[in-house]
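Methods: example folding runs. The two proteins below were folded one after another, and each record is reproduced exactly as written to the output file, sequence line first and structure-token line second.
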Amino acid sequence: MNIAVLLKYKIFHKILKSEFNKNVLILAGGTAVAQAVPVLISPILTRLYTPENFGAFAIFVSITSIISAIACVRYELAIILPAKDEDAINVAAVAFLFNVFISTLFLLFILFFGDWLLGVLNAKNLGWLIYLAPLSVFLMGIFNILNYTNNRFKLYRDITVANIYRSMSGATVQLVLGFFKLEIGLILGQVFTQIVAVGRLFKNVRDKFDFSKFNKKNLIIVMYNYKQFPLSLLPIQIFDLIRSYGLNFILLYFYGSQNLGLFYLSQRVLQIPLTIISGSISQVYYQNIVNNEKPYNFTMQIYKKLLILFLPVFFIIILIPDSFFLLLFGEKWVDIGKIIKFLLPWISLNFFSSFLSFSLIAKNRHKIQTIWSLIYTLLVICVAIFFTFLDFLDMILVLSICIGIFLLVYIFFVLIFLKKLQEEPER
């Protein structure tokens, strides 16, 4: 008994000796709590809201995510890089100004063409909620800036707390409004979470940054010095957005709001336990890989840890009978168990490849990542459209297998690249 306790203590102590492991555990722990909340309340939400409600929610999230991800034109990623805080605050200011500009343009677009957009997307059930989209875009842009600023100062605990606040507040709003039979609850809860998270993270930035160091002249300088982020990374982001959210528009057009709602919830439930780990690792990995002299060895160490964490989750999902998912989510969600299992090849390999793009970015291989992102996007869109002659479930299975194969090739490519890069000084 004492030997077992001693062994556990030694293993735990060894894990915590690594700063990387500690930072990942802090972020993963908070993310686990934050992401567990939507999972735990999903069986309640599926009884308060219909698949059509989730379909409308998916379209709102898709529209706002696409615009918000390009709102800062990727300058938020550069906040972590400058050696001086003075330069970092000016990079953050550049990102903020672009966010204001693009959010304002989007607001004008929605005011004049909002109804037209809903008609084109076959999303009339969104109604007046589309006018909340510009506010959501602005808040998400601010959150991205603050998140990377907190990451710069290694305030991982504060990022964790913000994520927990964000999740709890959104869940509360969605549940309360759902109990009152208000179909707008999912979207209002989403907007409220962003307000809470921005407020929490801004407190840290206000305490850490000396805003007197903001300088208009330096603003132009840092905008030029980090111009590769909008020039090289923005196209990558646009491709990723078209791939991730363009698929929702395709599903809505060919299969309707109900099937989109089933797909969206299935993807959300399946991704959550995996992104608890991969999202946290990505943030810490990006900071550690920049000046790492042995990127291949470092990446392989992470893969070994991910494999240990992932395999139990994979087999548990495979073994769960479809009837369990029907019992869990309710009678309206008949095919959700099948969809979750069909998505496994795609989501699982996405889990293993999600942070690798940061290695190409950190090693100044932006063009390579752009090419891969373009191929990935074309594959998803083309396969999805080409196989729309199949019924919904068969199309999801074919799409998942095709994407899984592509991601496997991508993983091997990046690992070979990192190994060659590591061996170069030895030649």
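Second run, written to the same file directly after the first:
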Amino acid sequence: MGHDWVFDVLRDLRTYALNNDLPELAQKVEEALRVAELEIGKPAVKEDKRPGTKGLPH
């Protein structure tokens, strides 16, 4: 798992911001995601065990 949880939290926060009309927060979270990718690396791709969902984003 490593640092993957950081990306999950940031994506959840971005979704919250977009769903609650907080565009500036969403933009800052996008920046934080880019910084995390640079400093931590790309998050691992999670495989979904449900049939017919392999490779789909979570």
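Comment on the second run: The two ends are 15 Å apart (CA to CA).
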